[in-house]
Amino acid sequence: MADGEGDPGVFTATALPGDPRLLPTVTNAFLGTRVFRDILHAAGVYSGAAGDTHRADVPSPLGLRMAAPGGHSPAESFTLDTWTGTFSHTIQSPGYEATHQLYAHHSLVHLMAFSVTIRRLDSSTHPITIQLQSLFVPHSQDLHLTPGPDFHGAHYIYGQTLVPEVEGGPRPTVHMLWSPIPGSLTLGGAERERCWQFLTAVAGSAEEARRSFSAGLALLPAGSLLRSHLRAWAALRRRCSVQLHGPPALRQALHGCLYYLLSAIPPRDSPGAPFHGISPGGLANGTRGEDYWGHVFWDQDTWMFPNILLLEPEAARAILHYRIRTLEGARRNAREQGYEGAKFPWESAATGREVCPEEIYGAQEIHVTGDVLMAFEQYYCTTQDLKLFQEDGGWELVEAVAQYWCSRMVWSEEEQLYHIRGVMPPDEYHSHVDNSAYTNAVARRSLNFATDLARDLLLPVPEEWEDRARKIKVPFDEERKYHPEYDGYSPGEPVKQADVVLLGFPLMHPMSAEVRRNDLEMYEPVTDPAGPAMTWSMFAVGWLELKELQRAWSQLEKCFSNITEPFKVWVENSDGSGAVNFLTGMGGFLQVILFGFTGFRITRSRLLFDPALPDPITELKVSSISYLGNRLEVTISREEIRMEVAEASRDPLASPLEAVLGSGQRFPLREGQSVSFPTAAGWIQRSPSRTP
């Protein structure tokens, strides 16, 4: 779709990209596939030991393609509709139209479905036949599959993965039921229109597969299955609605990012099924040798999580539960390296053990442990959800991370400071460095959060947590007034990706505006222009903080070289290399909108705001910001901020919210009542005293 044409949330093309990696993905929290592909993936189903662990390829009946008979080449169109969460392929010939529509059911997460509809366009009465071309074979390189008895007309296979992630560990089982797919479909001479529907159910048990398939069958009559998906997806999009008045390309990119990221999160009120994390390329990708093999990195916790937290905190909680569930694996990682507490893996799969194929990253890129804890801190400050920490294992994780950082530090007699030596910073062009500014700053933040949370929970605070947080070295050049990336960094050395600039955001490491500017000026020209896509978003956020709007916009524009047409699939690197459907880059892009343009910053007792809209953007509306159990609708223009509590906290003991400006003006925020004030910096907080 050319810029400026049509609906910015609907991407239509008359031809597919030449690179099949750039085809759109159709996923929910448990199942994912790339359209027209002969494999799908199920969440948490990995095969292979340690560094060979990868998403197990499950044969997919969904990857078929329609064709007109007799070699005829009709007009074709392909549409990804981000409003409905569906992909469709339409062929149009004189006299008829055929549409193949595919979706992963958002709330019935063990189900994927497709339909083929043939509609007569003239008064003819001859039969119309459409061929269905499929590569489906019920075999897998990763699963030992066995056929079982048919179930309500569906075929059935089941089997385990071939190799466990850890020796003696479990081998996940997959059970799949699918509607038989004929080689062709025919609209009878007396029929004007007909729709055929096909189901695929995939689960970890035969009972769940049968239950899901039966639920789908029961909803098929009269199109109720599709409608139930559309309702669930539409409700999610409404809750996570973000609208911009700005360039069409920006609005299209926004809707693409929301579609792909929201497709990855669990539905609201999902039954207690565990969530298995979000990998850089999403659930549809991650076969052996592709998209980091479906592993979970800091990409989830640092780049994707903050957006999910503001828009859908229940899904953010599920992400944290993934980390809690893998805590024992993280403890093993720490012990094996000779440290205490828990060290989260650079690459994680099902167990929390390190599954990175290259040892150096798992051994040295340890900032991921602090990144995990920062997500817990952001969640706690935004929700005040004590249950996660007191009953669900959150505190044990926080404590273990604090213990790890303390054991990883060494005391420097010369500097009278604690050091962390022999690490790889986020900038992966450097390794074996001492005192990475980012690593040490995130370690300090971990210890400060652990201390604060212990006090909130009325638990004793180990003295070493506070001592080490105070005395850890974060490199700073007093003469040049900037943060060297690590001990011995020389200005001008090339940097792979956003590193020191992350101190300002999301770490909010204390510094003056002068130092913040110097960090941006120092690292922007030496950061690799071919580096990963999320980098430029963090430079954009930095310049927005400093109200350098044109510089921010120029950094944001760099992201567009990573967005491919026509389906807005991101590539990790602008030359097309690396991961595809790169959710990490999308997460960074969304943070520019949700945290950069708004100035939102999550602190211990306030949600700060300080809007900054670059020239091409005249208004931003976020329909449902979640804060302390309330949902707020926030609209920002250059002249005015409007806020309304769309849904107030149901906690009878909670004080209502208020907006406070730097001038001291206070605006009570009550459910259903809109307030507005001139655009300025301020914060949202609980009112000091309850008001009626």
Automatic annotation (TrEMBL):
Query: Record's superkingdom?
Result: Eukaryota
Q: Tell me yes or no: is Glycoprotein among this UniProt entry's keywords.
A: no
Q: Residues in domain Glycoside hydrolase family 65 central catalytic?
A: 284-490
One MF term from GO for this chain? protein-glucosylgalactosylhydroxylysine glucosidase activity
Keywords carried by this UniProt record: Glycosidase, Hydrolase
Record-annotated Glycoside hydrolase family 65 C-terminal domain positions: 601-647
EC category name = hydrolase
Q: Give the UniProt record's GO annotations in the biological process aspect.
A: carbohydrate metabolic process
The record's EC number reads 3.2.1.107
Provide the Gene Ontology terms for cellular component. cytosol
Known role: Catalyzes the hydrolysis of glucose from the disaccharide unit linked to hydroxylysine residues of collagen and collagen-like proteins.
User: What protein family does this chain belong to?
Assistant: Belongs to the glycosyl hydrolase 65 family.
Classification via PANTHER family:
GLYCOSYL HYDROLASE-RELATED, PROTEIN-GLUCOSYLGALACTOSYLHYDROXYLYSINE GLUCOSIDASE
Q: What is this protein called?
A: Protein-glucosylgalactosylhydroxylysine glucosidase
Q: Which organism is it from?
A: Prunella fulvescens
